[in-house]
From TrEMBL:
It comes from the Bacteria. It comes from Pinibacter aurantiacus. One of its GO terms (biological process) is proteolysis. Signal peptide: none annotated. The lineage of its organism: Bacteria, Pseudomonadati, Bacteroidota, Chitinophagia, Chitinophagales. Residues 95-179 form the PDZ domain. This is S41 family peptidase. Pfam families: PDZ_2 (PF13180), Peptidase_S41 (PF03572). GO terms for molecular function: endopeptidase activity; serine-type peptidase activity. Keywords: Hydrolase, Membrane, Protease, Serine protease, Transmembrane, Transmembrane helix. Belongs to the peptidase S41A family. The chain crosses the membrane at residues 12-32. The keyword Transmembrane applies.
Length: 535
């Protein structure tokens, strides 16, 4: 009986033990490329074989079935989930797209497309990009890419994307339908930027606004260009919008903080059990060290966003407005593996200048509660009630000016703005979960293009467009043909959806800049920000 009990224990622990050694072994000998969560390194393992390594050798030598790459990946991910919520195994098939987002560019043709009725429609053409140079226009429909027919054959986003992307300077022949006629275009693929700045414009005569959606390899460069443009327009205050920004490359956020802080102030430091303390300090004179600054955050602002926000709050440099941030204060290094996959392994924690940890609590049992944290915050009233949002995590710290702040659970704002619950009503979700909205916006734009493009910006459109009710009636009629009724929804939900349609129409014309110029016109956090910079 004792022997059978031991065998059962081995069967239970074997996958986890095998995964642990497999992950450690695969990291041996791969290059380190330094840069925040993008770093890659050489991991030197001890020469003596551990019991875990012996287990792996025995499994490889004796196990009844082949150990596949998929099984290896599954076991690696299962093991990493027991460590922390952010260590992750990335299969080779997913790595390229994930890295592109942080690199800030990819090789392609420079169009946005959407599939309507099994047809790939061009909904935006990148200004100055390969497709614009070749002559493609909004409203064109893809019929063929090369010799591959892509119309009317259950085309998918993934398939059309794979057909259109390719090496830089390579050519792709496309056949398009325009105004009922077939036309062919030869497009020279090129480098397509993935902007990390969504919008940069003036909220009023003296207040600039910049929204950053992530921290990629190009973010600091984009930020400087945006801020310098605004300074030429004589701004004296700035609103920096980090809502929904899930982070990215640490050094990009550090460089931006340096533009707001003077001297050699500490911005952030990292430290782990096997990683000595590493400090990131100001290195240069910043271009916005004076002037009022407001930072907007919410429950989806994470990682590098929290580093930037925490530094500005600890030095009393900015007023933080919004809701408590996500609480992701773990540092990952990325290691390339031999099969083209990668391992992002947590190696340290972020600490703000005052010494507070950004990371919220988690367990080592699969992190189920961690993943449901935002839902729990909503259910407990934290997203809508200022009093509930004053939960104090960890011990107290002091800002430079003597204000009390707390660590261990994200960054708490100085000014609380509740979550708009109309965004998650059942009626609104029923509409937004369908493709009906995006289909309607595109077709409404095509049908009214001359009238809509007469506006010069999203700001002007937000102020002067007065056909919201006509647009809503057109949408209600369009939705009914798609088996979606919107006639019985509440007045509040109707107003929300009308604003949403108008904003998406702005994005159709002016991309993300137009989207946020329209959304911000009636945004509560923007209103609070303008009040703060005027005090």
């Amino acid at each position: 009986m004792h022997r059978n009990s031991n065998n059962k224990k081995i069967q239970v622990w074997l996958p986890l033990l095998f995964a642990l050694v497999m992950v450690l072994g695969m990291t041996l000998g791969y290059l380190l490329r330094g840069n925040g969560s993008q770093t890659r390194g050489i991991l030197m393992l001890p020469g003596k074989r551990s019991p875990l390594q012996e287990v792996v050798d025995l499994v490889n030598a004796k196990y009844v079935d082949p150990i596949t790459d998929t099984l290896n990946g599954d076991m690696a991910q299962a093991m990493l989930a027991k460590l922390d919520p952010h260590s992750v195994y990335i299969p080779a098939v997913d790595l390229s797209e994930i890295n592109e987002d942080l690199q800030g560019n990819f090789q392609g043709i420079g169009v946005e497309f959407q599939i309507f009725n099994d047809t790939v429609n061009v909904i935006n053409v990148l200004q100055g990009g390969p497709s614009e140079k070749a002559g493609l226009q909004v409203g064109d429909k893809f019929v063929k890419v090369g010799d591959s027919v892509v119309a009317g054959n259950k085309i998918t986003n993934a398939r059309i994307r794979n057909l259109l992307r390719g090496p830089g300077a390579s050519k792709v022949l496309v056949t398009m339908m325009r105004n009922g006629k077939l036309q062919q275009f030869t497009i020279n693929r090129g480098l397509i930027p993935i902007p990390s700045i969504d919008a940069s414009y003036k909220l009023d005569s003296s207040t600039g606004y910049i929204r950053i959606n992530k921290f990629s390899e190009t973010t600091y460069e984009e930020f400087m260009a945006s801020l310098e443009k605004l300074q030429k327009q004589k701004i004296s205050q700035l609103v920096l919008d980090l809502r929904g920004n899930g982070g990215g490359i640490l050094t990009e956020a550090v460089d931006i903080a340096d533009e707001f802080l003077d001297g050699n102030k500490l911005i952030v430091y990292t430290q782990g059990d096997k990683m000595p303390r590493q400090e990131y300090r100001c290195k240069r004179d910043g271009i916005f060290e004076k002037g009022k600054l407001v930072v907007l955050v919410d429950e989806n602002s994470a990682s590098a966003s929290e580093v930037l926000t925490g530094a500005l709050q600890d030095w009393d440099r900015a007023t933080i407005i919004g809701r408590r941030t996500f609480g992701k204060g773990l540092v990952q290094e990325q290691y390339d593996l031999s099969d083209g996959a990668a391992l992002r392994l947590t190696v340290a924690r972020y600490y703000t200048p005052s010494g507070r940890s950004i990371q919220k609590p988690y367990t080592h049992d699969g992190n189920g509660d961690y993943g449901n944290d935002l839902l729990k915050r909503y259910q407990h009233g934290e997203l809508v009630n200022a009093d509930s949002n004053k939960v104090q995590n960890g011990k107290a710290y002091q800002t430079k000016g003597g204000r009390t702040v707390y660590g261990g659970g994200g960054i708490m704002p100085d000014v609380f703005v509740p979550f708009d619950t109309s965004m998650i009503s059942a009626s609104v979700n029923k509409v937004l979960n369908r493709t009906t909205v995006s289909n309607f916006v595109y077709q409404y734009y095509v049908q009214n293009k001359n009238e809509l493009t007469a506006y010069h910006s999203g700001v002007e459109f937000a102020q002067k467009f007065d056909k919201e009710e006509d647009m809503w009636n057109a949408f209600a009629n369009f939705a009914s043909k798609d088996s979606l009724s919107v006639n019985s929804i509440s007045a509040k939900d109707k107003d929300f959806l009308k604003d949403h349609l108008k904003a998406l129409l702005g994005r159709q014309i002016w991309r993300n800049e137009g989207l946020y110029e329209i959304l911000n016109a009636d945004d509560e956090m923007i209103k609070k920000a303008l009040e703060a910079v005027k005090k």
